[in-house]
Amino acid sequence: MKKIPHRLYLTEEQLPKQWYSLRTDMKNKPAPLLNPATHKPLKEEELYPIFCKTAAKEEMDDTTAYFDIPEEILEIYKVYRPSPLSRAYDLERVLETPAKIYYKFEGNNTSGSHKLNSAVAQAYYAKKEGITRLTTETGAGQWGTALAIACSYFGINLDVYMVKVSYNQKPDRKSIIETFGANIIPSPSNTTNAGRAILAADPNTHGSLGCAISEAVEVAVTTDNCKYVLGSVLNQVVLHQSVIGLETYEAMNILGEKPDIIIGCAGGGSNLGGLIAPFMRDKLQGKSDVRIVAVEPASCPSLTRGKFAYDFADTGKITPLAKMYTLGCEFKPSANHAGGLRYHGMSPILSQLYHDGYMEAISVEQTKVFEAAAIFARAETILPAPESAHAIYGAIEEAKKCKETGEAKTIVFGLTGTGYFDLRAYNDFRSGSMTDHIPTDEELEEGFKKLPKF
Ligand SMILES: *Cc1c(COP(=O)(O)O)cnc(C)c1O
User: Does 132 lie in the same domain as 102?
Assistant: First the structure.
């Protein structure tokens, strides 16, 4: 008999009723967003043309530590939450490690990832404020899918601008997104000024999240009763995703466990920011010395090789400026990159915490990521999303170190989604046709040269 169960589900009473805002406990707050024209800190009202008011308020609020989760959102969370916290007994056995490995699995809902946690919140705000249409971008497609589900639930129209290279790699995404009633447009497209300009400069472009954001924002600000929503990076998204960390924190307490190391994959930073939220609170308050490790792709290394600077959130340079680790808003990961996490920047909250030494970051090539995914899948019987497999890679590396030193550390990692939408990438990996691309310093320098100067 194992003392600790394979999977722990919280009861309805134990589920978090509030989100926690990590930045309220940060001594150095994330730098304010700047108006791109005046370079002055942005006022909340200046965000209203882009975002729903509730979202704009959450984005700017540095002082409210706990936000009540609206009843309507709690009701939807109950449809697919809690997500399980699992002890990876079989992975531990395969690795012959004394480490105790836990993972929080967010892939059990139809969207297949944690992104639904913020999608339902943002769609609900739109509904409440009488917004009838939303626009967004999606890279690998998880965010577009999650938001399509949330918008379908609340009866809101949705246009999803999907990065062209991913649109072509993942035709099944179109099918799901359209099933839930949303429109999907490969980006860059001819439907916007931003898209036409990007296409004129480079007709064969594969697109990027930055391009797709420009298109989605343009449509939102030029269409009546239409707002733009984003699935990561922003403070409000990190806030909504704190539900992951709060559940994990509660479950670990129930198990009488304390993590030594928390590991997450980092694209825009929302799942990691959410997973670590209450643990980082304890660390910021001096009550814990837990190590936090972000794992990012070697082909899009914003934390490990980027610059901590003000930059645009989009390629078309129409969004506010955010201070973050960035590769430059025109950076495009190589087309052979299949593992997601392809955004040029990183959450300003995580960027500041990383800059201040509260967390570490590593980068890894995608072939190694898929090797880790296969080891995990065989041991734990879950096919992980390639994004999530970055965290698996990090956890396996730490578990191997424990094997060498004989230390029984407690490792927690975020398993953000399922890999069923990524079977083509799995095929490439198994057939040996998957390659790695690590940008040279010179390539990255091109991106840094284009950072806004003021
Ligand atoms: C979007 C996504 C990520 C990365 O986004 P973050 O905002 O960095 O969390 C990770 N895993 C999955 C499955 C995703 O869909």
Answer: no
pLDDT per position as a tens digit, 260-313: 999 999 999 999 999 999 999 999 999 999 999 999 999 999 999 999 999 999
Question: Which residues have any ligand 1 atom within 6 Å of their CB?
Answer: 113, 115, 142-143, 232, 265-271, 340-341, 385, 387-388, 416-417
Q: φ and ψ at 115, to 5 degrees?
A: -60, -25
Mutual orientation of helices 209-222 and 193-201 as an angle, nearest 10°?
150
Residues 107 and 186 in one domain: no
| Domain co-membership, 157 together with 294 | no
Residues 126/154, Cβ–Cβ less than 8 Å:
yes
Band of pLDDT at residue 338, cut at 50, 70 and 90: confident
Give pTM, 2 decimals: 0.96
Kindly give the distance from the C-alpha atom of residue 102 to the centroid of ligand 1, in angstroms, as a whole number.
Answer: 19
Of the three residues 178, 204, 228, the one that is the final residue of a domain is 228
Q: What backbone torsions phi and psi does residue 414 show, to the nearest 5 degrees?
A: -90, 120
pLDDT at res. 2? 58
Q: What are phi and psi of 11, to 5 degrees?
A: -80, 165
User: Residue with the nearest Cα to atom 2 of ligand 1?
Assistant: 387
Atom 13, ligand 1: residue with shortest CA distance: 417
Alpha-carbon distance of 328 to 444, in angstroms, equals 8
Ligand 1 pocket test target in 122, 387, 388, 390 with most atoms within 8 Å of CB: 387
Ligand 1: centre distance to CA 322 (Å): 20
CA-to-CA dists, residue 355 to 44, 263, 279, 304, 360, angstroms: 26, 17, 18, 11, 9
For helices 235-255 and 53-60, give the axis angle rounded to 10 degrees.
70
Q: What is the CATH number of the domain that holds 365?
A: 3.40.50.1100
Question: What are the tens digits of pLDDT across the range 353-380?
Answer: 999 999 999 999 999 999 999 999 999 9
Evaluated on CA atoms 383, 97, 368, 378, the torsion sign reads: negative
**Does residue 1 register a pLDDT over 60?**
no
Q: How high is the pLDDT of residue 335?
A: 78
